[in-house]
Design goal:
This protein has 141 residues and is an alpha/beta fold. Helices cover 45% and strands 23% of the residues. A five-stranded mixed β-sheet has the order 3-2-1-4-5, sandwiched between helices. The mean pLDDT is 90. One of its GO terms (cellular component) is cytosol.
Length: 141
């Protein structure tokens, strides 16, 4: 299994997670705070993380509607993934992220994390959930 980097693309923040060397587990790394409304501004930082961690695969969360269709937000994430693939020259997989941010928020609430702290880590945790789901799916193929 290749070392992978998971990305949860948001309008203001981008959560980042990285797999272990064996591709079994995902760990949250950081949250990139966007200064503009263009998520592509995160590409240079993502590329730094790719080089530092010898990443060979990128995984971008794809927000689908509950009926499985792809809406406006999903199309924005697809465009982000296409641009990132071109920018990084690495393969980019899209992975269904339905409910990951909600699940991350629920987990943090159950752990009694304050609202202020939740806001700081929820995107990173959503990236972990996206990447971990992707890794689990790949190991079952």
């Amino acid at each position: 299994m290749k070392r992978a980097l998971g990305i949860d693309v948001g309008k203001k923040r981008i959560g980042i997670a990285i797999s272990d060397a064996l591709g079994w587990t995902a760990q949250g790394v950081e949250t990139i705070h966007l200064k503009t409304t263009e998520p592509d501004e995160a590409f240079p930082r993502i590329l730094e993380l790719v080089k530092e961690n010898e990443i060979e695969q990128l995984v971008v969360g794809l927000p689908k509607n509950m009926d499985g269709t792809i809406g406006g937000r999903g199309k924005e994430c697809q465009a982000f993934a296409e641009n990132l693939e071109e920018f990084s020259s690495l393969p980019v997989a899209m992975y269904d992220e339905r409910l990951t941010t909600k699940a991350a928020e629920r987990t943090l609430l159950q752990a009694d994390v304050s609202r202020k702290k939740r806001k700081k880590v929820v995107d990173k945790m959503a990236a972990v959930m996206i990447l971990q789901s992707y890794l689990d799916h790949q190991s079952n193929l």
